[in-house]
Amino acid sequence: MSGTTTRRKNRTPSPWSRLILLFLALGAVLWALSRTLTALEQPQAEATAAPTATAEATVPAAVRLTPTPPPTAEPTPAPPAVDTGSWQLRLIDYDHPLGKDFAPPELTVVADGQSMDSRVAPAISALIDDAKAAGYTVYFCSGYRDYDTQYIIYWNHIYEYTAQGMSEEEAHAKTRLAVNYPGCSEHQSGLCADILESWDQEMEPWIGGSGLMLWLEEHCAEYGFVVRYPDGKTDITGVEYEPWHLRYVGQEAAAYMMENGLCLEEFLALYQAG
Ligand SMILES: [Zn+2]
User: Fold this and answer.
1) Ligand 1 center to residue 92 CA distance, Å?
2) Quick one: pLDDT band at residue 25, thresholds 50, 70, 90?
3) Which of 180, 125, 184 minimizes the C-alpha distance to 153?
4) For 217, phi and psi rounded to 5 degrees?
5) Residue 47 in this model has a pLDDT that exceeds 60
6) Using CA atoms, how far apart are residues 256 and 251, in angstroms rounded to an integer?
């Protein structure tokens, strides 16, 4: 019996042995499970990596996107360092009249009986000489005009228009587009010049853009002048396009205004904004 018992003992595991076997079995299962998971993960990792490498290798160079730089605005040169309070940049219009008693400090007769402020007389003389050298005939139509002369010109227009049947209000509105009110004209400053090809050339906007008017537009800044009432700026200047009316503002300001298509009001506003 004892032998049988011993055998039984040997054949029947003790509770401790069962526990050890259970741990061993559990360990085996966990090991097998971990092998299976590892085996499953590896192909997945390879499958994920493979398409990326393939895609990179097969994109033709021709269809690759090249970085496009963001659009940049046209470079606008900074306005020149000029003194906007200086005599040559003085704004003269209905809101900024010279007044009845203003006169330039000194006048110089330039050509065709016309005079200008002595400080700008050499510049307009050089412009006239060079325009002639370029093959144009030049007539200096009007330079400095005193208050009384402007008064007569202005009121002659009013009388003419009212005689045609316009109301006085209509006559003033039409006259102001072409002739400044006495005390508000740049001609009283001695800083501007009306330049034509002949004494009888019509002073109308349509003469602009050709002949001497085109030459003036292209070269006036070299002498310190601008076309004071440019085409398309009537809303700002209050005056119709006058390709013949040159105003002295100095070479730096003139070059900037003509290159950037600015009238004097717009140019001065750049400094007020800054
Ligand atoms: Zn004029």
Assistant:
1) 12
2) low
3) 180
4) -60, -40
5) no
6) 9
CA of 38 to the centre of ligand 1 (A): 94
Q: 12 C-alpha vs ligand 1 centroid, how far in Å?
A: 129
Q: How much is the pTM?
A: 0.70
pLDDT (average), residues 197-204: 92
Check if 242 is active-site.
Answer: yes
Give the pLDDT mean for 78-94.
94
> In whole angstroms, what is the distance from residue 39 CA to residue 17 CA?
33
Q: Which two tokens stand for residue 12?
A: 């029947």
Q: Is the pLDDT of residue 34 over 80?
A: no
Read off the pLDDT of residues 53-83 as tens digits, 9 standing for 90 and up: 445 556 556 655 655 666 665 657 889 999 9
Res 179: pLDDT: 86
Distance from Cα 93 to the centre of ligand 1, integer Å:
13
162 CA distance to ligand 1 middle (Å): 23
User: Could you tell me if 254 and 226 are in contact, meaning their C-beta atoms sit under 8 angstroms apart?
Assistant: yes
Catalytic residue among 106, 204, 217, 242: 242
Query: What average pLDDT does this structure show over 19-42?
Result: 58
Task: Tell me the backbone φ, ψ of residue 84, rounded to 5 degrees.
Answer: -70, -10
Between the CA of 269 and the centroid of ligand 1 the distance, in Å, is 23
